[in-house]
Design goal:
Blueprint: E1 4-8, H1 14-24, H2 34-43, E2 48-53, E3 56-65, E4 70-77, H3 86-101, E5 106-108, H4 115-123
Parallel strand pairs: 4-5
Antiparallel strand pairs: 1-2, 2-3, 3-4
């Protein structure tokens, strides 16, 4: 895996990341637009980690730390590059970032229907917490 390079996204990468997510990520979010990703990058330029092989974008993860908790979003590996350790390497880089920032526990947003992802997260040592449920509210208007 020595040809795999992982590092933070540059501002110039953000449009390509959005295109990548359309092909490699499961589901979409209301933040999946250039303005949303630019806000993330402006607030924490180290949070969006990219995996590249021979210059090609092959994986992403958002490793966000709010000073209290460590959150993982958008772990995605290009379909043509899966099962090669890229997701594992991205998670290791994210966890190293969290430890350096003083984080003590990481949580991940994983779609219930994405059973293939469940296996990936379990293999990395993560497990679902039955006692928690995510509550959300869009901030741009009513939910109904």
């Amino acid at each position: 895996m020595s040809d795999l390079q992982i590092g933070p996204a540059a501002a110039a990468d953000l449009g390509a990341v959005l295109d990548f997510w359309k092909a490699a990520a499961e589901g979409t979010s209301i933040s999946d637009d250039l303005a949303g990703v630019e806000r993330l990058h402006e607030r924490d330029p180290q949070a969006l980690l990219l995996a590249r092989r021979d210059g090609e974008l092959v994986g992403t993860v958002i490793a966000g730390f709010d000073g209290w908790r460590c959150h993982l979003y958008r772990l995605a590996v290009h379909p043509g590059h899966r099962r090669q350790g890229i997701g594992t390497a991205l998670l290791a880089a994210a966890e190293e970032r969290f430890v350096a920032l003083g984080g003590r526990r990481a949580d991940a947003m994983v779609l219930v229907r994405n059973e293939r992802a469940h296996l990936t997260w379990e293999a990395a040592g993560y497990e679902p917490q039955d006692q928690w449920r995510r509550w959300v509210k869009p901030l741009d208007g009513p939910t109904r």
